[in-house]
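Narrative of activities, Objective 1.

The group set out to show that a structural description can be obtained from nothing but a protein's sequence at a throughput compatible with the screening campaign. Below is one input-output pair from the validation batch, recorded exactly as produced.
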Amino acid sequence: MKNIGVLGTGMVGNTIATKLIRLGYKVMIGSRTADNEKAVAWAKENGDNASAGTFASAAAFGDIIFNCTLGEISLEVMKLAGIEHLRNKILIDVSNPLQFAPGQRPVLIPELCNTNSLGEAIQHFLPDTQVVKTLNIVNCEVMVDAGKCGGEATMLLAGNNGEAKAAVTEILHQFGWNDIIDMGNIEHARSTEMMLPVWLSVFMATKNGHVAFKIVR
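Output recorded for this entry:
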């Protein structure tokens, strides 16, 4: 069973890291400091296979890395994690290029949509890392338990490396995703990231976070 590093101590990172522990993986959750209170508390709650460290130590620890940080700081986090710690590894990017302002609806970062994407920007910064974009079109509870949306939803993924996408697909199956579409190379992260405004509108209309997309074909 591979070691997994999770970058980010928020709700998404915590939820994914906890699910991975339950699946039997060894997981290190990373943040800016080794003594981050949320990360240390999570590690204590989740047993011997759970640990906490910096972004760099989590990246070095993992054979596979999850980027669960806010999209507006993800590139900064990749720098802190260290190119040398991520080289020749799989990085699963579940983040979205959203800007948040108090009292306002989140919006896509202009330079990371339409003709670009956060997934592509991370891949450009980490040319020797196999970046796979997936899980970013649902909330974190549905990410790790596809059945929570109440139906057979579709999960999309994109990346340049076929072997990396196959390894990520195995994890998606463990998270309960059975209907998975490989969109192609990392350029298709543009499409999945731009689905977030649709998801947000549906969430606001239904007040239900357990919603997902189904591709009927």
